[in-house]
Design brief:
transmembrane, mainly alpha, membrane, 266 residues, PGG_dom, PGG domain-containing protein, 79% helix, transmembrane helix
């Protein structure tokens, strides 16, 4: 009937999986918002359980709604598991010789957690929406000559390799963001992971995946995609230079030299 989702018409089972997973994520989000208002609930693990359920619901909805074949959905879901395994291995091997953190280190780690959580939520929101509504939209009718069905991405119909690059870059960024959020929920997980820079590596990989998805999906010309990567590299280089200058100016010796120079000029 008119108004029915295309996915429901083409693949009813996949649409039901997407619908129920998305509904579970939505209800779990509402429950988490309600639990945040209660100080008693904040001291228990109920909020963490609701958030984890929410994130797994999003993973299922993304895997079911962003692709049309089972193998691709399995690959997309396996990315999240691979990220979690990597973080665990990284933490185990890079924190063997570290002692207990000091109160100053714990405070610094908690501040870094807020920044990482902000980036992860923003990236997850962008990539989830981009995965369900790919660039260029989807086909509205079947094409018997090419074998494409209604609901297939238009970008896949015109440029299969470019769509494949977009899909996997976007999926990597989405799964990395979800894995980051899951790890950042529990302090026993994110504190050693942040201290060992495991989450920093995941954040950097997620950012490059987001850049790759944008470069592959926003244009149909290779030259323009290269320009986007070059622009991103220039921006990262400028940020790195500014960060180094900021850190150098924060050193005590540097400040003393500046005062000496000012005193001599007078």
């Amino acid at each position: 009937m008119a108004g029915d989702p295309i996915l429901l018409t083409v693949n009813a089972g996949r649409y039901k999986a997407f619908y129920y997973c998305n509904s579970v994520a939505f209800v779990a989000s509402l429950v988490a918002i309600i639990l945040v208002q209660s100080k008693v609930m904040l001291e228990t693990h109920v909020l963490e359980a609701a958030m984890v359920l929410d994130l797994f619901g999003l993973i299922g909805a993304y895997a079911a709604g962003s692709s049309r074949d089972l193998s691709t959905s399995i690959y997309a879901m396996a990315l999240a598991g691979a990220v979690l395994v990597y973080v665990v291995i990284h933490v185990v091997f890079f924190t063997l010789n570290h002692g207990d953190p000091t109160p100053e280190e714990i405070k610094s780690v908690d501040k870094r957690r807020k920044r990482l959580l902000l980036f992860a939520v923003l990236a997850a929101t962008i990539t989830y929406q981009a995965g369900l509504t790919p660039p260029g939209g989807v086909r509205l009718q079947d094409d018997g000559s090419s074998g494409h069905q209604a609901g297939d991405p238009v970008l896949f119909y015109n440029f299969p390799r470019r769509y494949t690059a977009f899909f996997y870059c976007n999926s990597v960024s989405f799964m990395l963001s979800i894995a980051l959020i899951i790890l950042l929920v529990n302090p026993h997980l994110y504190r050693p992971a942040i201290r060992s820079y495991a989450l920093a590596v995941c954040t950097g990989a997620g950012m490059f995946g987001l850049m790759g998805a944008y470069a592959a999906g926003s244009t149909q010309h290779l030259k323009t995609s290269i320009y986007i990567f070059v622009l991103g590299a220039v921006v990262l280089f400028v940020i790195a230079v500014l960060l180094l200058v900021f850190l150098e100016c924060g050193r005590p010796g540097y400040r003393i030299d500046c005062r000496t120079i000012k005193g001599g000029s007078r």
